[in-house]
Amino acid sequence: METTTQNDPGKTVAIISYITIIGFIIAIVMHNDNKNKSELGAFHIRQALGIFITGFSLMIVSLIFTNISGLNWIVAILAQISYIGLFVFWILGLIAAVNAEKKALPLIGDFYQNLLKGIK
Hints:
It is a single chain. It contains 5 helices and no strands. The chain is elongated.
């Protein structure tokens, strides 16, 4: 965990990246502007994108498996538990962004930091 100063222009990018997919797109555009480019902003863009990718993947998998007869209620329960977990990850990421901390999300944070290291 690393804390940066309050005047870091990347803090705004970090916070906006967690506010829906439209906020994520706005954060990417802001981050690509040289005056807002920072390691904090890039870190949280990668974390937020990881949450979005994981959520989309869970949605696709749950849609596929709910069509298998006999498993639809089990998949529905597991999907809801997973979505609650993703919501908790989203809250943790947003809190870290507000506090200007580079704190990886549990379970998925380090994976997506390595996978998306091209976002700088």
